[in-house]
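// run 5 | inverse folding | seed 20
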């Protein structure tokens, strides 16, 4: 049966259903689109966070890799407690000069020590000038430290050794008895020294110094290190060793009870002189070992060959490649010195009144010197000109390797130095007159804008002018 009304209603229902489905699909699509948008935003946020963290990590790594600067932020307003520290300007000459008599004196029962050296802790320096000198020694890798050692009559520099340096000494005054213990302890070399003689102790070699005269002994000691000297005394080792270990090692009568009778003194015994020494020591002998042993650790500098110049004299305690001019004993010292790494060379330099140790430099060594007598003027020559300063007894000077320098006597008396050089090989030196004479005159003419003939006016002397007079 045809029913048009019915047909119209059915179509309407179908249309309504289609519209409902389309609406549902649309909502689902919008929901899907929103879900995708949320995912996108979440991913974007995660990327931003990851990037920020990465940048932060890279920044921290970069900052930690940079040298740290001591930067202090100044407050925006003045405060009463904040007092800015003003850095004192130090004269450049103190890179090369140390007024050693002004330094701290380390007192001991039997003597005293003073130092011209580098300090790890800047607070250990007594002045900015001393710090400038110590820093110069270390930054130039000088392999040099200097100390003065004064030992009272009958005093003893306790048996000890140095971990990080050879020791070279020059006796300025007095008489001393030296002991050196060889590897294994089978041989103890002992010998006497007097003023003007040199002693040598290789690194990690146990040794002692005893004053056997009536006056103070005064030593100048040079050590082959630009770091702080590391030393260990025998008494410190003994009292740091557990009692049972010391007893088993020494096996004394009475065993551990014997060890317990020893007591560490409250005062440092580095330079020792007990007040009751006469009660402690009844019979002391000062044996002299054979020359074949002694001359490994000893050199008679005052009795060695004098190298004469118009304006002064030099004597040397060092290694000679050609030892033809040496005595048999001097050859022992020369060869033994050369066997040890970072050994030093010592010499005395005497400059007569108005004499000049002309400008020169050393190829293979730093130089350190101590003024024994007289006074003078030192010059350090660089591209900006010359740094000049006066020197007197007790002053220490330092010339880095390759630094051109000169020394002039400004007193009526002789100017006398003890010098140390940071090489165990033959010292290599070039003086100003030698390198000017060795340079072709046409090269000099071009360099100085002077006619070639002008340089014929510079004379060449048969006698070495290393130390000259006007």
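// decoded
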């Amino acid at each position: 049966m045809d029913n048009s009304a019915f047909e119209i209603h059915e179509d309407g229902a179908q249309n309504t259903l289609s519209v409902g489905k389309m609406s549902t699909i649309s909502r689902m699509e919008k929901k899907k689109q929103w879900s995708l948008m949320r995912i996108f935003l979440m991913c974007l946020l995660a990327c931003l966070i990851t990037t920020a963290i990465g940048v932060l990590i890279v920044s921290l790594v970069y900052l930690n890799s940079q040298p740290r600067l001591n930067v202090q932020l100044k407050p925006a307003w003045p405060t009463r407690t904040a007092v800015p520290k003003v850095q004192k300007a130090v004269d450049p000459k103190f890179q090369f000069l140390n007024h050693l008599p002004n330094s701290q004196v380390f007192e001991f029962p039997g003597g005293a020590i003073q130092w011209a050296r580098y300090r790890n802790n800047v607070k250990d320096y007594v002045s900015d000038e001393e710090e400038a000198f110590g820093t110069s020694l270390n930054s130039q890798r000088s392999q040099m430290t200097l100390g003065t050692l004064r030992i009272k009559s009958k005093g003893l520099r306790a048996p000890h050794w140095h971990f990080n340096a050879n020791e070279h000494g020059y006796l300025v005054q007095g008489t001393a008895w030296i002991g050196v213990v060889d590897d294994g302890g089978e041989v103890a070399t002992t010998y006497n020294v007097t003023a003007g003689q040199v002693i040598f102790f290789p690194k990690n070699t146990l040794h002692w110094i005893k004053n056997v005269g009536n006056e103070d002994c005064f030593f100048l000691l040079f050590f082959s290190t630009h770091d702080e000297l590391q030393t260990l005394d025998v008494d410190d080792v003994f009292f740091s060793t557990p009692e049972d270990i010391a007893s088993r090692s020494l096996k004394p009568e009475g065993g551990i009870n014997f060890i317990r009778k020893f007591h560490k003194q409250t005062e440092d015994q580095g330079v020792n002189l007990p007040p009751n020494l006469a009660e402690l020591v009844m019979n002391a002998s000062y044996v002299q070992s054979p020359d074949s042993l002694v001359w490994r650790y000893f050199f008679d500098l005052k009795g060695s060959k004098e190298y004469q110049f118009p304006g002064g004299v030099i004597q040397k305690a060092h290694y000679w490649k050609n030892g033809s001019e040496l005595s048999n004993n001097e050859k022992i010292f020369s060869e033994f010195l050369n066997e040890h790494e970072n050994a030093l060379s010592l010499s005395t330099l005497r400059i007569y009144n108005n004499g000049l140790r002309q400008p020169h430099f050393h190829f293979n060594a730093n130089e350190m010197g101590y003024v024994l007598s007289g006074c003078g003027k030192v010059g350090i020559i660089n591209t900006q000109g010359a740094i000049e300063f006066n020197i007197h007894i007790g002053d220490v000077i330092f010339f880095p390797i390759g630094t051109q320098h000169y020394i002039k006597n400004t007193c009526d008396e002789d100017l006398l130095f003890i010098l140390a050089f940071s090489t165990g090989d033959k010292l290599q030196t070039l003086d100003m007159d030698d390198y000017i004479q060795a340079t072709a005159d046409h090269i000099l003419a071009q360099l100085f804008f002077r006619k070639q003939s002008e340089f014929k006016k510079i004379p060449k002397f048969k006698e070495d002018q290393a130390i000259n007079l006007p």
